Amino acid sequence: MMTERWGIFELTLNGPQTGNPFVDVTFGALFKHQNRVIHTDGFYDGDGIYKVRFMPDKEGTWAYSTFSNCSELDGMIGEFECIMPSAQNHGPVRVKDEYHFAYEDGTPYLPFGTTCYAWIHQGDEMEEKTLATLADAPFNKMRMCVFPKHYDYNTNEPVYYPFEGSLEEGWDFTRFNVEFFRHMEKRIGELLALGIEADLILFHPYDRWGYSTMDCESDERYLRYITARLSAYRNIWWSMANEYDLMQAKNLMDWDRFFKLIQQCDPYQHLRSVHNCHTFYDHGKPWVTHCSIQHSDLTKVTEWHKLYKKPVVVDECCYEGNIAHNWGNITAQEMVHRIWEGTIRGGYVGHGETYVDPNDILWWSKGGILHGQSPERLSFLRQLLEQSPQDLMPIDIGYSYDVLYALSKNDEYFLAYCGSGQSAYKDIALSDQSSYTIEVIDAWDMTVTPLDGVFRGKCRVKLPAKPYIGLRIRKVE
Amino acid sequence: MMTERWGIFELTLNGPQTGNPFVDVTFGALFKHQNRVIHTDGFYDGDGIYKVRFMPDKEGTWAYSTFSNCSELDGMIGEFECIMPSAQNHGPVRVKDEYHFAYEDGTPYLPFGTTCYAWIHQGDEMEEKTLATLADAPFNKMRMCVFPKHYDYNTNEPVYYPFEGSLEEGWDFTRFNVEFFRHMEKRIGELLALGIEADLILFHPYDRWGYSTMDCESDERYLRYITARLSAYRNIWWSMANEYDLMQAKNLMDWDRFFKLIQQCDPYQHLRSVHNCHTFYDHGKPWVTHCSIQHSDLTKVTEWHKLYKKPVVVDECCYEGNIAHNWGNITAQEMVHRIWEGTIRGGYVGHGETYVDPNDILWWSKGGILHGQSPERLSFLRQLLEQSPQDLMPIDIGYSYDVLYALSKNDEYFLAYCGSGQSAYKDIALSDQSSYTIEVIDAWDMTVTPLDGVFRGKCRVKLPAKPYIGLRIRKVE
Q1: Inter-CA distances, B101 with A117, A449, B230, B389, Å
Q2: Number of structural domains found in chain A
Q3: What is the pLDDT of residues A397-435, one digit of tens each?
Q4: Which of A326, A353, A463 to mutate to test the interface with B (most CBs of B within 10 A)?
Q5: Which of B36, B57, B83 is the endpoint of a domain?
Q6: Which of A30, A42, A112, A253 has a 20 to 30 Å separation from A48 between CA atoms?
Q7: Which CATH number do you get for residue A189?
């Protein structure tokens, strides 16, 4: 048997079907490579089938031995060969040097996220449409909920429910609906094939089924089950919640507990965060790998950077659209502006779209197709960043009165953004030891126009006196 | 002799020229109407001329008697007749019912302010050009400094200086330059003729002459002199400072002291305020008649209203223009948007303009001509307000998730604003006891389009799905 590095090795065994295997049977395996042993929980997948999934992070031979409180499942041994990853497989995403992300093989990862909260609950036709849209879109991260969603424009029942039971007769939180999880895994695997990280939201408040108000034991059973099933997917990120602060049945200690449980159960230490509505969770806590923020003022990225010393992901800064809600009615211009503003300050700002639709198919929750004008511009921004040196850091290159932020690499490279104002010029301070070329970028029109001549030291840069202008400044070799 | 109500009665006397009449001679008059006596300070106007000016607020006979420490000026008596005001004369502006302004005769006053800080220091040609521009502009309040200004784009010397002396040899703060004050009075009188209130800034930090760092005695002598000269102009408002918090030579007690001194010296109790840069003065203090605010977030008007229980004037929310400074590079759209946003929340938001000019003639400081696209839209807004019932109060007419502010009169009239978003509809809550017509206003295109039918109770209003849309909602009679 062969599994590629950061691929999924899956061991399937037959075991008991009587009683409630979800709670009665403990099952897992130890995976061993050289002198390293990794404890991995397995899960019950219905019909007497038990599985354990494992994501090897080193090439070579891995040996395993199962453990269980059930003799049929206990003490099975075997091994498999971990081979080179395929070309598109760079491993899971990790935090790099405090503020950045990179895949485990060192390839830079620049999050360009979008949100389709309930896309996996819309049935195959719509879900495949969403995947087709994503194949041509600039996004490499998807915020999505495990549980179905009940909210404005979101009144349809999901195809699958996570637990056995029904809305009418109640749910048996001790019995998972394996169809639900198999379906979710399939979709997460399809995202992976598209190079998209699944920022998986474990809890959220928009609920009519009772999944947001389960008891403590059920919450934990659910978290253990989902981490056992999904941790081996290299594109998983754990988001404890969307708008955790709106979940009245939970308190801060619950969120701490969930973080710590995931930290304990996930053998691969995937990224962990929690997303606010009004009030931030303390992103400084040690189990939080990066900030996951809802906020409309992207100039604050600078402050959050300093405060948390972690990557700042602003998953939600309002959505391009035209619904009545103010969080879903910003123009494409404003969406692009906010994403540039936060990006140039060193953050990673997410997209979303909420255009009124006769059938209530809004991208932000159900997926489908994109109608807006921002994705094309985000593609342009992503290209600019991918053409830039790695691990850029935000600095202020303005002089006199105002800050003018730029992503920079030493004294060699600057990608600046002048905002929604329409300045006819900006004064900037470059090194007076070097010469620089400057290109004027129009973030909306998606043009790059070189300025004549070279620049050095403190200098005045003529601008087209319109909003959404950036500057690319490069040292002359 | 006859003076119209709220006009200026001026008594001129000859007195001593020796010594320093500005400090040696006390002079003033008591003005009496029926059983009311008003103490009025006079001033020295050079060449042995002493004057006292008086703004009568009642029709009928006023008797006066002068007082002085100099026998030539003491004990002169006389009387004059105060007659009906002329058609355009409504008296000074007063605060009305906590949040509004009205002229003393009861005529509503809706501030539409602009700023030309140093316009009276630019020489006659430019100053007359400014007046000609104002004659065709929608503005009825002008923020302007007494002292000349030293700042970016403001490096020219003024024509007149307020004190005797020179920059090279120093100033004699005990001797006022009467030419300076006569010139300023002339300009203030010309504003009055155009129906424009002079929001006169007494101190400011942008100084190379030393007027921002005078000693305590000189500050007070200056304030007494200027109130003696100018209080009788009915269009005077006293602004203690522009950006008081940048004046490092003054502390909060100084500002309290200046307010109290003006309150004591001005017989007519003109409006008093002080303008911040970063940090607000406490507008709740009793000598402050209204808030004078610099801030870019106009949604906060709602909060300031509740906090201070006084009219909220936001004199500065950035300026339409294209200079490098972010406070002077907002688009005309954004300027119009901010003014609507603050207005509909019950505030009074000021205009300003800062377009780069080859001769550094920027409206915001020097006046001249207007280049921008916002004044026309402010004219449109002013018309809408003048066509509205008086004394509108802001309320939230939105339902479900978001606030939607409207200026309202009982259940009869609403002027709402949907902001910079592009909602395709809004849900509003009207009385279900009445029927209403609704017109859609495009604040940028300056159109008013009636919607078909009538509306009542909770209802959905279809919008053109673009930014800067207002609604005028009127009860069907």
Answers
A1: 49, 51, 21, 14
A2: 3
A3: 998 778 999 999 999 999 999 999 999 999 999 999 999
A4: A326
A5: B83
A6: A30
A7: 3.20.20.80
